Amino acid sequence: MRSLGRRTFILGGLAAASTLTYAGTALAASPFPFKLGVASGDPAADSVVLWTRLAPTPLNADGQGGMGTADVTVEWQIAKTSTFGTLIASGTAIARYADAHSVHVVAGGLAADTDYYYRFRAQGHISAVGRTRTAPAAGSAGRDLVMAFASCSHYEAGYFNAYRRIAEDQPGLILHLGDYIYEGGVGSSGVRQHLGTEIVSLADYRRRYALYKTDPDLQAAHAAAAWLVVPDDHEVENNYANMVRNDSSPVLTAAQWTARRTAAYKAYYENMPLRPSQAPSGNAIPLYRRVRWGSLATFHMLDTRQFRDDQACGDGWKVCADADLPARSLTGTAQESWLLDGLGQHLGTWDILGQQVFFARQFDAAGASSMDAWDGYRASRARIQQGWVDRGVRNPLVLTGDVHKSWASNLKADYANPNSATIGTELVCTSITSNGNGSGSTTIPNGATNPHIKFYSDQRGYVRTTITPSQVRADFRSVASVTEHGAAVSTTRSFVIAEGQPGLQQI
Ligand SMILES: [Fe+2]
């Protein structure tokens, strides 16, 4: 496709989606290829990733979305207004057949702490417009940051009302902490249904992402702000630990499991607004990374699946002496060193760990706890907590997904001693939909044995944070329903974490 000028691109934006005329030539109508929406991600002070994937018929069983085998040129534009009156940057990228016709454009040369709008054009069609924002420059706090974080969006469990409400909050940044898709086959009791059996092949994973991404509420959340994403287990398979499977179904040989993990990581990269530096290489994907937000915050995005030791005592909720073994690690040694090194650099006021599984201790009265969470890797947790204490990290804040309930905890120097120092804070978002409509209970499970846990709520939703140099405000947002499309959202509880004073203050 030849390059088109800005003027014709703008005219195209006003034309009908199905046919576009430019330079006196009518293009043959082709099906709209932007049915999976647009996204941006991993902002820096001078660049951001722009993503789209061409798929005119997204649910085709071959995972190719109705595209042919040819690579396709995609044009992109960035402007300061949604009318694209003055372009700031533009260019072309190749949507390759080998990458399911996805593109990951690193749009550079941008101004720090600035809002931008972007869009794509391909095959005579113009995409929806997305909004994004660059990070503040190093040394600058920039504007206050409204950041929403979420996890666990099971398509069958309900409508993505929470994604729509996140979009309406117009955050400057969105974190997704895993379980963006679920791998299971079609269920019998869902509000809506997956397609086919449990996903295993690359075609399966590509089609599953396409199914999720046809959801208009999810598309709205992507179009509203840049995302920072890390996967958890269900982007591959439930509770896998490095190369150890937790499930016995479907039956897979070791080689088939390796191929499955390779396919899952490839499809994850293809469908997320990640930088090309996060592209997988075979059976591995380099996902843990730091994203700096000027002097205000540093996001340390962790990968707690790819390098972990197997769950102790056969996984599950257990009393398990092996969970205390000092050699056990949830991060692997390289990631642990990388994290502690980054924390020791004091790059921003708030050191925010974006990660997957429950961090604070949660024991029941018998001493049992979740072997899939940090409670199953206690020495690993202790090394990281002590590591940030030793390095004088003033404001560590752990963000968590996975458990489909809202929680908030003070992190303790010694969980067995309620009077020990509070050395950090954890906020756990509930699910977007997983587990369906909640009970509404706010009674803290195992509250008596874990006095450092301060909040619990069983409803679906997300957490909206407002990050400033002096405090982080956290609003636990709950949607009234996931079985009714368009249900309202409200704030169940709010907390403040004051700079230099780890721990929750209820407001
Ligand atoms: Fe989940």
TrEMBL record:
Alphabetical list of Pfam families matching this protein: PhoD, PhoD_N
Entries under SUPFAM superfamilies matching the protein: Metallo-dependent phosphatases (SSF56300)
Signal peptide segment: 1-28
One GO MF term: alkaline phosphatase activity
Keyword annotations: Hydrolase, Signal
Domain Phospholipase D N-terminal positions: 36-134
Domain of life assignment: Bacteria
InterPro entries in the cross-refs: Metallo-depent_PP-like, PhoD-like_MPP, PhoD-like_sf, PhoD_N, Phospholipid_Metab_Enz, TAT_signal
Enzyme kind, highest EC tier: hydrolase
UniProt keyword Hydrolase present: yes
Residues in PhoD-like phosphatase metallophosphatase domain copies: 147-476
Listed EC numbers: 3.1.3.1
Annotated PANTHER family: ALKALINE PHOSPHATASE FAMILY PROTEIN (AFU_ORTHOLOGUE AFUA_5G03860) (PTHR43606:SF2), PHOSPHATASE, PUTATIVE (AFU_ORTHOLOGUE AFUA_6G08710)-RELATED (PTHR43606)
Record protein name field: Alkaline phosphatase D
Source organism (scientific name): Allocatelliglobosispora scoriae
